[in-house]
Amino acid sequence: MSESSPPSRHQMGLVACTCYVFANIVGAGIFITPGPIFAYTSSIGLALLVWAGCGLISIIGGICYIELGTSILEPGCDFAYAVYVGWESLAFSFMWVGVLMSYPASAAIQAHTFGQYIVAGLAPVVPIDPQWQELVERGLGFALILLLTVLNFYAIDKYASKFQIFVTAAKLLALAVIIFTGFYYLIVKGWTHNFENIMAGSNWNPGSIALAFYGASWSFSGWDILNYGTPEIYKPRRTMPIALLGGIALVTLIYLAMNVSYCVVMTPQQISNSSAVAVEFAQATLGSFSYAIPFMTALMLSFLRFTHAAAREGHLPRFLSCINTGSNSPRAALLFQLVCMVLVSFVNTNDLINYVTFIMFGQRLISIAALFWIRYKKLPVAAGAIEVPIIFSIVFWLFTAALIVVPFVEDTKNTIIGIIFVAVGLAIYYVFVKPTNTPNFLIRLNDGMTRVTCRLLFSAPDLRRVAATTATETATDEELHSLNSADCHKRREKITPTYNA
């Protein structure tokens, strides 16, 4: 495509990409993590430095990912980059952890936040006994998960997308209300008493600061979203740098403004002890309108199709790729995600954030190492790739490595659990995925689970990679017909029973 040609209807331009980056970063994190960050830093000044520092590091990381995204045009971000340099085992292990823990944990955190904010918002009107509070919060979170599962299960295009538009609008309105209210009290009413000595009581312990960066980094996670679909970007050499860096910079300014607004009204101790900081802020400043804030900030949960996408590529069992073409809903993957979310939701929220962030940094450490390897080996890259100064990659790699190593001292248990998950993924790869001859019992199990899934969910396998198979390994038309789904017959050419593990 020439530089002067217009984008196709499937490609995103500059404005769309910038909005995509912004919307993907801003989520429940800014309403969850201020408390833990203030608990780790113990002062307004140091907490703001952590937020600003994390924004700066995200920009540096974005610069590195611009080179990766324009050099390797394959979609898939970290997974694609590890595979490109031949590190399939590492790519698989982090994909495994993402499917089983990282993505379900992120959704579980947001669902729990929904419950916390709803309970806190209703507390002045409908007080709940403290011994029942956590149960009610989790129940509301499960209700939200089930609602979104149903929306995605039956009509993903008709209802789920409209629901997400409503959620995004509510989120932006909540951000604007909190920021304008905070600065009104700061500038017009002169509430500056909390800023008289902003560095007082700062906790400079490296481990505590690292854990504070964990929380802030989770709130910034998602800035690499454009790297998951580089081929869908119009003029990536021009669009990616502006959209990615502009989106991160805008989010950084908003996060700093949000935290300043919180600090105008609340002390660091109040913020660190709060599980719903936006609710307490609203109750102290907005009067009767404060009841609207919990509902605007609570609706942050969205469903990812990562599990379905991985199964389509053949990296997960085939039954997880099954899709109902009537609603375009990956029903098997949705149910699998639902189960994983419910299981991990019983883990402490701060521990979940640390798990997710540890895995996220591990993936980025591998991706930057892959970039170093590409340069060292002079591997071929896409024409027109942007090559950024190597100092950015070095700084980002060292920062990422530090945030993996330092928590071993401060949060040893959670760090070891994260490593165990990655190690299990490596073991599964070498035992089940890498061998070329898949055991017959696994082939039969995979086939059986796929047939049962198709019958129960009225779906058909949706495989992108079609393997050449022998006549005995290929599903027959009669077998496809027995799946009790018209969609299966329409998509029979995509079905392949061979899958390693």
UniProtKB/TrEMBL annotation:
Keyword Methyltransferase: no
A cellular component term, taken from the record's GO annotations: membrane
GO molecular function ontology, one term from the record: L-amino acid transmembrane transporter activity
Keywords recorded for this protein, A-Z: Membrane, Transmembrane, Transmembrane helix
Membrane-spanning parts: 12-32, 44-66, 78-97, 139-156, 163-187, 207-228, 240-258, 291-311, 332-349, 355-374, 386-409, 415-433
Membrane topology summary: Multi-pass membrane protein
UniProt subcellular location: Membrane
Record has Transmembrane helix as a keyword: yes
Protein's name according to its UniProt entry: Uncharacterized protein
Source organism: Caenorhabditis auriculariae
